[in-house]
Amino acid sequence: MFEKLLNLEPKRREEIINAALKEFAAKGFDDASTNVIAKEAGISKSLMFHYVNNKKDFFLFLYEYCLEIIKKEYFYLVDLSEKDIFERLRQTYMLKVKVLKKYPWIFDFTKVVVFTDSEAVKNELDERRKNLDEYSLLNFYGDIDISKFRENLDVEKSKQLIYWAIGGYANQILEEMRSDENYKADYEKIGIEFNGYLNELRKSFYK
Amino acid sequence: MFEKLLNLEPKRREEIINAALKEFAAKGFDDASTNVIAKEAGISKSLMFHYVNNKKDFFLFLYEYCLEIIKKEYFYLVDLSEKDIFERLRQTYMLKVKVLKKYPWIFDFTKVVVFTDSEAVKNELDERRKNLDEYSLLNFYGDIDISKFRENLDVEKSKQLIYWAIGGYANQILEEMRSDENYKADYEKIGIEFNGYLNELRKSFYK
DNA sequence: ACAAAATTGACCTATTAGGTTAATGAAATT
DNA sequence: AATTTCATTAACCTAATAGGTCAATTTTGT
Hints:
The structure is a homodimer.
Chain A: H1 3-6, H2 10-31, H3 34-41, H4 45-52, H5 55-73, H6 85-102, H7 106-115, H8 119-137, H9 155-179, H10 187-205
Helix pairs in contact in A: 2-3, 2-7, 5-7, 5-8, 6-9, 6-10, 9-10
The first copy, chain A, binds a DNA duplex through residues 33-35, 43-47, 49-50, 54-55.
Protein backbone atom coordinates (compact mmCIF):
# COMPACT_ATOMS: atom_id res chain seq x y z
CA MET A 1 0.00 0.00 0.00
CA PHE A 2 2.90 2.34 0.65
CA GLU A 3 5.43 0.80 -1.68
CA LYS A 4 5.71 4.01 -3.66
CA LEU A 5 6.77 5.88 -0.56
CA LEU A 6 9.02 3.13 0.71
CA ASN A 7 10.79 2.74 -2.63
CA LEU A 8 11.89 6.34 -2.75
CA GLU A 9 15.52 7.09 -2.24
CA PRO A 10 16.11 7.16 1.52
CA LYS A 11 16.89 10.84 1.85
CA ARG A 12 13.72 11.86 0.05
CA ARG A 13 11.60 9.38 1.95
CA GLU A 14 12.91 10.60 5.26
CA GLU A 15 12.22 14.20 4.32
CA ILE A 16 8.60 13.36 3.65
CA ILE A 17 8.24 11.19 6.71
CA ASN A 18 9.87 13.75 8.95
CA ALA A 19 7.69 16.52 7.61
CA ALA A 20 4.64 14.43 8.44
CA LEU A 21 5.91 13.39 11.85
CA LYS A 22 6.62 17.00 12.69
CA GLU A 23 3.19 18.22 11.67
CA PHE A 24 1.30 15.37 13.28
CA ALA A 25 3.39 15.63 16.43
CA ALA A 26 2.77 19.36 16.66
CA LYS A 27 -0.94 19.38 15.91
CA GLY A 28 -2.36 15.91 16.32
CA PHE A 29 -4.27 14.06 13.66
CA ASP A 30 -7.27 16.33 13.20
CA ASP A 31 -5.48 19.65 13.15
CA ALA A 32 -2.49 18.56 11.11
CA SER A 33 -2.60 19.87 7.57
CA THR A 34 -1.61 17.83 4.56
CA ASN A 35 -0.84 21.10 2.81
CA VAL A 36 1.69 21.96 5.49
CA ILE A 37 3.23 18.52 5.33
CA ALA A 38 3.68 18.70 1.58
CA LYS A 39 5.14 22.19 1.77
CA GLU A 40 7.53 21.20 4.56
CA ALA A 41 8.56 18.14 2.58
CA GLY A 42 9.23 20.34 -0.45
CA ILE A 43 6.83 18.56 -2.80
CA SER A 44 3.42 19.31 -4.21
CA LYS A 45 0.37 18.08 -2.43
CA SER A 46 -0.64 16.07 -5.48
CA LEU A 47 2.62 14.19 -5.39
CA MET A 48 2.22 13.52 -1.73
CA PHE A 49 -1.21 12.04 -2.35
CA HIS A 50 0.35 10.01 -5.11
CA TYR A 51 2.48 8.38 -2.44
CA VAL A 52 0.04 8.08 0.44
CA ASN A 53 -3.57 7.69 -0.78
CA ASN A 54 -5.06 9.54 2.21
CA LYS A 55 -4.35 11.35 5.44
CA LYS A 56 -5.68 8.69 7.75
CA ASP A 57 -3.80 5.81 6.18
CA PHE A 58 -0.69 7.92 6.13
CA PHE A 59 -1.02 8.57 9.84
CA LEU A 60 -1.57 4.91 10.65
CA PHE A 61 1.28 3.89 8.40
CA LEU A 62 3.56 6.33 10.20
CA TYR A 63 2.60 4.87 13.53
CA GLU A 64 3.57 1.35 12.53
CA TYR A 65 6.64 2.58 10.73
CA CYS A 66 7.81 4.42 13.82
CA LEU A 67 7.15 1.51 16.11
CA GLU A 68 9.30 -0.66 13.88
CA ILE A 69 12.11 1.84 13.94
CA ILE A 70 11.91 2.35 17.67
CA LYS A 71 11.97 -1.36 18.21
CA LYS A 72 14.82 -2.09 15.83
CA GLU A 73 17.01 0.89 16.52
CA TYR A 74 16.29 1.36 20.18
CA PHE A 75 14.43 -1.27 22.20
CA TYR A 76 16.22 -4.28 20.79
CA LEU A 77 19.65 -2.72 21.12
CA VAL A 78 19.59 -1.99 24.83
CA ASP A 79 21.78 -4.32 26.78
CA LEU A 80 19.57 -5.26 29.70
CA SER A 81 22.34 -7.18 31.38
CA GLU A 82 23.97 -3.88 32.26
CA LYS A 83 22.60 -3.18 35.73
CA ASP A 84 24.44 0.02 36.58
CA ILE A 85 21.93 2.86 36.32
CA PHE A 86 24.37 5.31 34.81
CA GLU A 87 25.70 2.86 32.26
CA ARG A 88 22.14 1.94 31.36
CA LEU A 89 21.27 5.59 30.95
CA ARG A 90 24.34 6.22 28.86
CA GLN A 91 23.42 3.40 26.59
CA THR A 92 19.74 4.17 26.17
CA TYR A 93 20.21 7.86 25.63
CA MET A 94 23.02 7.50 23.15
CA LEU A 95 20.78 5.17 21.17
CA LYS A 96 17.96 7.62 21.48
CA VAL A 97 20.08 10.47 20.17
CA LYS A 98 21.02 8.37 17.18
CA VAL A 99 17.38 7.67 16.38
CA LEU A 100 16.44 11.31 16.93
CA LYS A 101 19.13 12.47 14.56
CA LYS A 102 17.40 10.61 11.77
CA TYR A 103 13.82 11.24 12.93
CA PRO A 104 13.75 14.30 15.20
CA TRP A 105 10.01 14.05 15.90
CA ILE A 106 9.59 10.32 16.24
CA PHE A 107 9.13 10.22 19.99
CA ASP A 108 6.88 13.27 20.05
CA PHE A 109 4.82 11.65 17.36
CA THR A 110 4.34 8.39 19.21
CA LYS A 111 3.49 10.39 22.31
CA VAL A 112 0.81 12.28 20.42
CA VAL A 113 -0.53 9.00 19.11
CA VAL A 114 -0.84 7.69 22.64
CA PHE A 115 -2.77 10.70 23.87
CA THR A 116 -4.85 11.42 20.81
CA ASP A 117 -8.61 11.15 21.12
CA SER A 118 -9.44 11.96 17.53
CA GLU A 119 -12.58 10.06 16.58
CA ALA A 120 -11.21 9.61 13.09
CA VAL A 121 -8.37 7.32 14.09
CA LYS A 122 -9.23 6.18 17.61
CA ASN A 123 -10.57 2.76 16.75
CA GLU A 124 -7.84 1.86 14.31
CA LEU A 125 -5.22 2.94 16.81
CA ASP A 126 -6.68 0.92 19.64
CA GLU A 127 -6.10 -2.27 17.69
CA ARG A 128 -2.54 -1.40 16.94
CA ARG A 129 -1.67 -0.18 20.38
CA LYS A 130 -1.79 -3.65 21.86
CA ASN A 131 1.49 -4.41 20.15
CA LEU A 132 3.20 -1.71 22.12
CA ASP A 133 2.15 -2.96 25.52
CA GLU A 134 4.66 -5.75 25.67
CA TYR A 135 7.44 -3.23 25.24
CA SER A 136 6.24 -0.62 27.65
CA LEU A 137 5.95 -3.41 30.16
CA LEU A 138 9.55 -4.38 29.91
CA ASN A 139 10.64 -1.34 31.81
CA PHE A 140 14.10 -0.18 30.88
CA TYR A 141 14.84 1.19 34.28
CA GLY A 142 13.18 -1.23 36.65
CA ASP A 143 15.84 -3.84 37.06
CA ILE A 144 18.95 -1.98 38.13
CA ASP A 145 21.58 -2.42 40.79
CA ILE A 146 20.93 -0.20 43.81
CA SER A 147 23.79 -1.45 45.96
CA LYS A 148 26.10 1.38 44.99
CA PHE A 149 23.84 4.19 46.14
CA ARG A 150 24.81 6.08 49.28
CA GLU A 151 23.23 4.40 52.23
CA ASN A 152 21.39 7.43 53.60
CA LEU A 153 19.49 7.93 50.35
CA ASP A 154 15.91 7.08 49.47
CA VAL A 155 16.74 5.05 46.39
CA GLU A 156 13.38 5.41 44.67
CA LYS A 157 13.44 9.17 44.97
CA SER A 158 17.06 9.28 43.90
CA LYS A 159 16.40 7.21 40.82
CA GLN A 160 13.52 9.44 39.89
CA LEU A 161 15.68 12.54 40.31
CA ILE A 162 18.38 11.01 38.15
CA TYR A 163 15.90 10.24 35.37
CA TRP A 164 14.52 13.74 35.50
CA ALA A 165 17.97 15.27 35.42
CA ILE A 166 19.09 13.22 32.45
CA GLY A 167 15.79 13.88 30.72
CA GLY A 168 16.58 17.57 31.05
CA TYR A 169 19.95 17.11 29.43
CA ALA A 170 18.43 15.05 26.62
CA ASN A 171 15.87 17.75 25.95
CA GLN A 172 18.63 20.28 25.61
CA ILE A 173 20.44 18.17 23.04
CA LEU A 174 17.17 17.66 21.22
CA GLU A 175 16.48 21.37 21.05
CA GLU A 176 19.95 21.99 19.68
CA MET A 177 19.40 19.32 17.05
CA ARG A 178 16.14 20.85 15.98
CA SER A 179 17.15 24.47 15.96
CA ASP A 180 20.25 23.79 13.88
CA GLU A 181 19.07 22.75 10.43
CA ASN A 182 22.40 21.14 9.61
CA TYR A 183 23.30 20.08 13.09
CA LYS A 184 26.24 17.76 12.75
CA ALA A 185 25.56 15.28 15.53
CA ASP A 186 29.02 14.66 16.86
CA TYR A 187 28.31 11.55 18.87
CA GLU A 188 31.76 11.50 20.35
CA LYS A 189 31.38 15.04 21.65
CA ILE A 190 27.89 14.41 22.94
CA GLY A 191 29.12 11.21 24.53
CA ILE A 192 31.87 13.07 26.36
CA GLU A 193 29.58 15.82 27.56
CA PHE A 194 26.99 13.28 28.60
CA ASN A 195 29.62 11.37 30.53
CA GLY A 196 30.50 14.58 32.29
CA TYR A 197 27.00 14.90 33.62
CA LEU A 198 26.71 11.23 34.45
CA ASN A 199 29.93 11.46 36.41
CA GLU A 200 28.59 14.31 38.52
CA LEU A 201 25.57 12.19 39.29
CA ARG A 202 27.76 9.21 40.10
CA LYS A 203 29.87 11.25 42.48
CA SER A 204 26.74 12.59 44.10
CA PHE A 205 24.48 9.57 44.42
CA TYR A 206 27.01 6.74 44.74
CA LYS A 207 29.13 6.15 47.77
CA MET B 1 -10.44 48.45 25.99
CA PHE B 2 -10.95 45.27 27.95
CA GLU B 3 -13.00 46.63 30.83
CA LYS B 4 -15.89 44.37 29.98
CA LEU B 5 -13.71 41.33 30.39
CA LEU B 6 -11.94 42.65 33.45
CA ASN B 7 -15.17 43.57 35.19
CA LEU B 8 -16.58 40.08 35.02
CA GLU B 9 -16.79 38.13 38.21
CA PRO B 10 -13.35 36.59 38.81
CA LYS B 11 -14.33 32.98 38.29
CA ARG B 12 -15.92 33.67 34.95
CA ARG B 13 -13.08 35.90 33.82
CA GLU B 14 -10.52 33.27 34.69
CA GLU B 15 -12.46 30.61 32.81
CA ILE B 16 -12.36 32.69 29.67
CA ILE B 17 -8.75 33.70 30.09
CA ASN B 18 -7.67 30.16 30.82
CA ALA B 19 -9.52 28.83 27.82
CA ALA B 20 -7.70 31.34 25.66
CA LEU B 21 -4.32 30.72 27.25
CA LYS B 22 -4.75 27.01 26.71
CA GLU B 23 -5.68 27.33 23.05
CA PHE B 24 -3.01 29.91 22.24
CA ALA B 25 -0.40 27.95 24.17
CA ALA B 26 -1.28 24.76 22.34
CA LYS B 27 -1.51 26.15 18.83
CA GLY B 28 0.15 29.54 18.65
CA PHE B 29 -1.55 32.68 17.45
CA ASP B 30 -2.31 31.75 13.85
CA ASP B 31 -3.64 28.27 14.43
CA ALA B 32 -5.58 28.99 17.57
CA SER B 33 -9.32 29.06 16.97
CA THR B 34 -11.63 31.58 18.56
CA ASN B 35 -14.41 29.03 18.17
CA VAL B 36 -12.49 26.58 20.30
CA ILE B 37 -11.74 29.21 22.91
CA ALA B 38 -15.39 30.18 23.23
CA LYS B 39 -16.48 26.57 23.44
CA GLU B 40 -13.86 25.75 26.06
CA ALA B 41 -14.88 28.83 28.02
CA GLY B 42 -18.50 27.71 27.86
CA ILE B 43 -19.86 30.82 26.19
CA SER B 44 -21.00 31.70 22.72
CA LYS B 45 -18.53 33.13 20.26
CA SER B 46 -20.63 36.26 19.93
CA LEU B 47 -20.36 36.89 23.65
CA MET B 48 -16.67 36.38 23.53
CA PHE B 49 -16.35 38.96 20.78
CA HIS B 50 -18.50 41.21 22.90
CA TYR B 51 -15.73 41.09 25.50
CA VAL B 52 -12.63 41.15 23.34
CA ASN B 53 -13.17 43.02 20.04
CA ASN B 54 -10.78 40.80 18.07
CA LYS B 55 -8.41 37.88 18.16
CA LYS B 56 -5.23 39.87 17.83
CA ASP B 57 -6.01 42.38 20.55
CA PHE B 58 -7.13 39.56 22.78
CA PHE B 59 -3.81 37.84 22.29
CA LEU B 60 -1.82 40.97 23.01
CA PHE B 61 -3.96 41.75 26.01
CA LEU B 62 -3.34 38.27 27.37
CA TYR B 63 0.37 38.74 27.00
CA GLU B 64 0.44 41.90 29.06
CA TYR B 65 -2.03 40.48 31.53
CA CYS B 66 0.14 37.41 32.04
CA LEU B 67 3.30 39.43 32.43
CA GLU B 68 1.64 41.44 35.16
CA ILE B 69 0.55 38.33 36.98
CA ILE B 70 3.92 36.68 36.66
CA LYS B 71 5.61 39.77 37.97
CA LYS B 72 3.26 40.34 40.87
CA GLU B 73 2.67 36.77 41.93
CA TYR B 74 6.08 35.34 41.15
CA PHE B 75 9.04 37.55 40.29
CA TYR B 76 8.45 40.15 42.98
CA LEU B 77 7.84 37.58 45.69
CA VAL B 78 11.09 35.69 45.41
CA ASP B 79 13.41 36.40 48.29
CA LEU B 80 16.72 36.91 46.56
CA SER B 81 18.59 37.18 49.85
CA GLU B 82 18.18 33.44 50.26
CA LYS B 83 21.39 32.07 48.75
CA ASP B 84 20.96 28.37 49.40
CA ILE B 85 20.11 26.74 46.09
CA PHE B 86 17.59 24.32 47.55
CA GLU B 87 15.82 26.92 49.62
CA ARG B 88 15.70 29.17 46.57
CA LEU B 89 14.25 26.35 44.50
CA ARG B 90 11.72 25.53 47.17
CA GLN B 91 10.60 29.10 47.24
CA THR B 92 10.39 29.73 43.51
CA TYR B 93 8.66 26.48 42.70
CA MET B 94 6.09 26.76 45.45
CA LEU B 95 5.25 30.20 44.12
CA LYS B 96 5.10 28.82 40.63
CA VAL B 97 2.69 26.07 41.66
CA LYS B 98 0.43 28.68 43.23
CA VAL B 99 0.35 30.69 40.02
CA LEU B 100 -0.17 27.58 37.93
CA LYS B 101 -3.10 26.51 40.03
CA LYS B 102 -4.93 29.65 38.99
CA TYR B 103 -3.60 29.80 35.43
CA PRO B 104 -2.42 26.34 34.37
CA TRP B 105 -1.22 27.49 30.94
CA ILE B 106 0.33 30.81 31.79
CA PHE B 107 3.96 29.77 31.42
CA ASP B 108 3.32 27.74 28.29
CA PHE B 109 1.55 30.74 26.86
CA THR B 110 4.40 33.14 27.53
CA LYS B 111 6.79 30.58 26.10
CA VAL B 112 4.74 30.38 22.91
CA VAL B 113 4.71 34.16 22.73
CA VAL B 114 8.49 34.23 22.93
CA PHE B 115 8.95 31.74 20.12
CA THR B 116 6.10 32.79 17.86
CA ASP B 117 6.94 34.10 14.44
CA SER B 118 3.41 34.87 13.32
CA GLU B 119 3.52 37.86 11.01
CA ALA B 120 0.19 39.01 12.40
CA VAL B 121 1.51 39.80 15.85
CA LYS B 122 5.29 39.91 15.47
CA ASN B 123 5.72 43.66 15.35
CA GLU B 124 3.37 44.40 18.20
CA LEU B 125 5.04 41.79 20.33
CA ASP B 126 8.52 43.09 19.67
CA GLU B 127 7.64 46.41 21.27
CA ARG B 128 6.21 44.76 24.34
CA ARG B 129 8.95 42.23 24.76
CA LYS B 130 11.46 44.86 25.85
CA ASN B 131 9.70 45.10 29.17
CA LEU B 132 10.46 41.51 29.89
CA ASP B 133 14.20 41.73 29.33
CA GLU B 134 14.97 43.37 32.62
CA TYR B 135 13.37 40.47 34.42
CA SER B 136 14.90 37.67 32.45
CA LEU B 137 18.22 39.33 33.08
CA LEU B 138 17.90 39.20 36.81
CA ASN B 139 18.57 35.52 36.84
CA PHE B 140 16.93 33.74 39.72
CA TYR B 141 19.56 31.14 39.98
CA GLY B 142 22.76 33.00 39.26
CA ASP B 143 23.67 34.34 42.65
CA ILE B 144 23.72 31.35 44.95
CA ASP B 145 26.02 29.98 47.58
CA ILE B 146 28.24 27.22 46.24
CA SER B 147 30.32 26.68 49.37
CA LYS B 148 28.24 23.75 50.58
CA PHE B 149 28.70 21.59 47.50
CA ARG B 150 30.92 18.54 47.79
CA GLU B 151 34.42 19.54 46.89
CA ASN B 152 34.96 16.99 44.14
CA LEU B 153 31.98 18.25 42.16
CA ASP B 154 31.85 20.43 39.08
CA VAL B 155 29.50 23.01 40.54
CA GLU B 156 28.17 24.35 37.25
CA LYS B 157 27.25 20.90 36.02
CA SER B 158 25.77 20.01 39.37
CA LYS B 159 23.62 23.12 39.45
CA GLN B 160 22.38 22.35 35.97
CA LEU B 161 21.51 18.79 36.95
CA ILE B 162 19.64 20.01 40.00
CA TYR B 163 17.59 22.42 37.91
CA TRP B 164 16.76 19.73 35.41
CA ALA B 165 15.77 17.28 38.15
CA ILE B 166 13.50 19.77 39.89
CA GLY B 167 12.06 20.81 36.55
CA GLY B 168 11.10 17.18 36.03
CA TYR B 169 9.33 17.06 39.35
CA ALA B 170 7.51 20.32 38.61
CA ASN B 171 6.33 18.97 35.28
CA GLN B 172 4.88 15.97 37.03
CA ILE B 173 2.90 18.16 39.43
CA LEU B 174 1.76 20.26 36.51
CA GLU B 175 0.49 17.25 34.61
CA GLU B 176 -1.41 16.07 37.66
CA MET B 177 -2.95 19.49 38.03
CA ARG B 178 -4.05 19.56 34.43
CA SER B 179 -5.37 16.02 34.17
CA ASP B 180 -7.49 16.38 37.29
CA GLU B 181 -10.24 18.85 36.53
CA ASN B 182 -10.89 19.53 40.20
CA TYR B 183 -7.38 18.99 41.43
CA LYS B 184 -7.29 20.23 44.97
CA ALA B 185 -3.83 21.70 45.19
CA ASP B 186 -2.80 20.70 48.66
CA TYR B 187 0.17 22.98 49.05
CA GLU B 188 1.17 21.43 52.30
CA LYS B 189 1.29 17.96 50.78
CA ILE B 190 3.13 19.19 47.71
CA GLY B 191 5.49 21.08 49.95
CA ILE B 192 6.29 17.96 51.92
CA GLU B 193 6.82 15.82 48.85
CA PHE B 194 8.91 18.53 47.27
CA ASN B 195 11.01 18.74 50.41
CA GLY B 196 11.56 15.02 50.16
CA TYR B 197 13.12 15.38 46.75
CA LEU B 198 15.10 18.45 47.74
CA ASN B 199 16.49 16.54 50.71
CA GLU B 200 17.72 13.73 48.50
CA LEU B 201 19.48 16.30 46.37
CA ARG B 202 20.92 17.97 49.44
CA LYS B 203 22.27 14.69 50.76
CA SER B 204 23.74 13.94 47.36
CA PHE B 205 25.28 17.21 46.29
CA TYR B 206 26.16 18.82 49.61
CA LYS B 207 28.95 17.62 51.82
C1' DA C 1 11.65 9.36 -30.84
C1' DC C 2 8.66 7.34 -27.75
C1' DA C 3 6.55 5.06 -23.82
C1' DA C 4 6.42 5.16 -18.88
C1' DA C 5 6.95 7.35 -14.73
C1' DA C 6 7.31 11.47 -11.93
C1' DT C 7 5.38 15.73 -10.87
C1' DT C 8 2.37 19.62 -10.77
C1' DG C 9 -1.35 23.44 -11.27
C1' DA C 10 -5.97 24.01 -11.44
C1' DC C 11 -9.89 22.62 -9.62
C1' DC C 12 -13.91 20.40 -6.63
C1' DT C 13 -16.88 20.47 -2.43
C1' DA C 14 -17.27 20.84 2.38
C1' DT C 15 -15.85 22.96 6.41
C1' DT C 16 -13.94 26.44 9.23
C1' DA C 17 -11.93 30.92 9.86
C1' DG C 18 -12.75 35.62 12.16
C1' DG C 19 -16.29 38.58 12.83
C1' DT C 20 -21.16 41.11 12.56
C1' DT C 21 -26.00 41.79 13.28
C1' DA C 22 -30.43 41.61 14.72
C1' DA C 23 -33.14 39.57 17.90
C1' DT C 24 -34.14 37.53 22.48
C1' DG C 25 -34.03 37.06 27.67
C1' DA C 26 -33.17 38.90 32.02
C1' DA C 27 -32.39 42.91 35.31
C1' DA C 28 -32.77 47.33 36.72
C1' DT C 29 -35.10 51.83 36.66
C1' DT C 30 -38.85 54.69 36.47
C1' DA D 1 -46.42 47.62 35.03
C1' DA D 2 -43.96 49.60 31.53
C1' DT D 3 -39.71 50.68 29.81
C1' DT D 4 -34.97 51.06 29.36
C1' DT D 5 -30.63 48.73 29.68
C1' DC D 6 -27.53 45.08 29.72
C1' DA D 7 -26.25 40.11 28.81
C1' DT D 8 -26.44 36.65 25.62
C1' DT D 9 -27.12 34.05 21.50
C1' DA D 10 -28.51 32.02 16.77
C1' DA D 11 -28.09 32.96 12.20
C1' DC D 12 -25.46 34.75 8.97
C1' DC D 13 -21.41 36.87 5.99
C1' DT D 14 -17.17 36.32 3.18
C1' DA D 15 -12.71 34.59 2.72
C1' DA D 16 -9.70 30.94 3.46
C1' DT D 17 -8.44 26.27 4.00
C1' DA D 18 -9.55 21.45 4.44
C1' DG D 19 -8.76 16.75 2.05
C1' DG D 20 -8.56 15.04 -2.30
C1' DT D 21 -8.81 14.39 -7.68
C1' DC D 22 -7.46 14.82 -12.46
C1' DA D 23 -5.74 16.13 -16.68
C1' DA D 24 -1.75 17.97 -18.36
C1' DT D 25 3.17 18.54 -18.36
C1' DT D 26 8.04 17.37 -17.40
C1' DT D 27 11.50 14.09 -16.71
C1' DT D 28 13.43 9.69 -17.31
C1' DG D 29 14.86 5.39 -19.46
C1' DT D 30 15.23 2.86 -23.74
